[in-house]
Amino acid sequence: RLERIWLLLGTGSLVVFLIILGVMACGLGLNPPGHMHTIVPEQVKTTAPFDKPALTQIGPNEYKASMIAEAFAFTPGEIAIPRGAKVHFEITSPDVVHGLLIPNTNVNIMVVPGHVTEFEYTFKKSGDYAMLCHEYCGIGHHMMMGKLVVQ
Ligand code: CUA
C-alpha cells in the first residue's frame, strides 16, 4: 500500500513538473499561442492560406498579408494599402531561412521554413516601402525584395 502511495506521488510530481515545463516554454516565447504555428516545409505551398498568398481585407482599413518568402522572391511581391492601414503579416518559407525587413518601420521578421511568423504594423505614412530579405539565403539573396505602397 505504501508503494502505491509513493507511485502516485511520483506520478503526480512528474505531471506537475511537465506542466511547469510547458508554462515555462510558453513564457520563454518558444511557442506563444496564436503567434506561431508550424507546417511541414514541403507542404507550405499546398496549405491554406499559403497556397494562395495574398492581401485580404479583414476590417475597416485592416488587412491580413499571407506571404511566402522563397528563394528569391516574396509572394505577393507587391502590396498596396491605404494610408493608416493596419496589416497583420503572416509569413513562412518552404525552403530556407529568409527575412522580411521593411525600412522606416519596425517590421523585422525572421522567416523560418515551416514556421508561421506573425507581426502587425500600422502604416501611418504614405509612400513606397521596400520589403527586403535580410537573412542570407543564397545566390539571389541581394535581389530578393518586394514593394509595399501606402496610398
Ligand atoms: Cu531570402 Cu535572403
Automatic annotation (TrEMBL):
**Which part of the chain is the Cytochrome oxidase subunit II copper A binding domain?**
51-151
What one GO molecular function would you report for this record? cytochrome-c oxidase activity
Task: Respond yes or no to whether keyword Transmembrane is given for this record.
Answer: yes
**CDD domains (alphabetical):** ba3_CcO_II_C
Pfam families named in the record: COX2
Keywords linked to the UniProt accession: Copper, Membrane, Metal-binding, Transmembrane, Transmembrane helix
The name this protein goes by in its record: Cytochrome aa3 subunit 2
User: What organism, scientifically named, is this protein from?
Assistant: Paenibacillus montanisoli
